[in-house]
Amino acid sequence: MSTVLQADGLGKKYGKRWALADCTLDIPEGRIVGLVGPNGAGKTTLLNLAVGQIRPTAGSIRVLGGTPASGPEQLAKVGYVAQDTPTYAALSVADHLKLGARLNPGWDGALARERIRRLGLDPGQRAGKLSGGQRAQLALTLGIAKRPEALILDEPVAALDPLARREFLQGLMEAAAEHALSVVLSSHLVSDLERTCDYLIVLVESRVKVAGDVDELLAAHHRLTGPRRDAARLPDDQQVVSESHTDRQSTFVVRADDPIHDPAWTVGRLGLEDLVLAYMTPAPARRALEAIR
């Protein structure tokens, strides 16, 4: 299977601090990938490496089989919408489309104009007068009309209200299906990823904690609740992701390939948010929660 992004021991260091470390990924094409993690986890660093805005300190990264930003052909393959959904306040919507046509050899003007029409945007209106949701949709239109093979978006809906977020993500899913796009989308809003993404990457403290198909990850993770027990007593094939304890009860989130039939446990399924939070909760925070109880 072809990959949209392949990283091997990828790292980026600023001074003495690693913004991303030992990142190894192999993301298949044709997926909508959710990249999630706390602030400072390395999400933006990974995406900036993927589009060639910065270079790695260690390891390697390839996007659609090529080195990011290695030449015009590679640049044409990848669309990018940065964190602040950049538009130029003094330029009109029509000016943005003209700029897109000038900068992108594969520009699809008919697609851009039709999308602007469907969104109800006035071509003569300056971007600075648009709402946040409208600016985000304009930025997405520019990314799609470039006709890339992959579209990379860095927290594009973070500043939008719930309705504008939903409209943006709906438009993104429709575009991905219509144009066979591979999409990598970073967000700290897990509910948005749950509606949109079929592949998940969790970054914590500059490292990849888990990556894979969403349905497969949910099937492989379980919540175990039962009499208090030390994690070391669990079977070797049950990888402990998170744990919490009261005086009499233990709760574990574990990863296991096989069903769990131990009668001592109540076994529950996890939602996507539960899964993400289990990987994001650091050990000190878990100990603090236990102390409060």
Automatic annotation (TrEMBL):
Molecular functions (GO terms): ATP binding
Superkingdom of this protein's organism: Bacteria
ABC transporter domain span: 5-230
Regions that span the bilayer: none
Keyword ATP-binding: yes
Keywords for the protein's UniProt record, in alphabetical order: ATP-binding, Nucleotide-binding, Transport
Cited PANTHER family: ABC TRANSPORTER ATP-BINDING PROTEIN ALBC-RELATED
Listed name of the protein: ABC transporter ATP-binding protein
Native source species: Actinomadura chokoriensis
